[in-house]
Specification:
The protein is mainly beta. Helices cover about 0% and strands about 60% of the residues.
């Protein structure tokens, strides 16, 4: 998984904490959370790690498409919210076994920073 921030040369130090989802007919609903690798607790106060939470809905088909998507980015103790777009979505299965999910997701903050998340296909856990 790669998360590219503000400048295309900057790879953010985050990892996928969890991805969950469920399929309902022709739609899949996905929740993904990424957290910073650089978080710790100081003696004076809790330092909250930077994180990204994506809630997306996929219309399943050939090809599968992003139906809707939102993000919450906590960065440097600031909260950014908005919509997510996708240039590529991978979704398979979910009928007899656990579905597979991945893709490329894009969003911009109100401050003008652009982000790109490359999420390789992986098996979803049920919510």
């Amino acid at each position: 998984m790669r998360i590219i921030g503000e400048d295309s040369a900057v790879l953010l130090p985050m990892h996928l904490l969890k991805v969950k989802g469920r399929r309902d007919g022709y739609y899949a609903y996905i929740h993904a959370k990424f957290v910073s690798d650089n978080h710790f607790i100081s003696s004076e106060e809790l330092i909250v790690p930077d994180s990204i939470i994506m809630e997306i809905s996929i219309k399943i088909g050939v090809p599968s498409q992003l139906s809707s998507g939102n993000y919450r980015l906590h960065k440097n103790r600031q909260l950014f919210k908005g919509s997510v777009s996708s240039s590529y979505i991978y979704f398979t299965g979910g009928q007899g076994g656990l579905p597979g999910f991945g893709g490329v997701f894009l969003f911009k903050t109100s401050g003008g920073a652009s982000y790109k998340i490359n999420l390789p296909p992986a098996e979803l856990k049920r919510r």
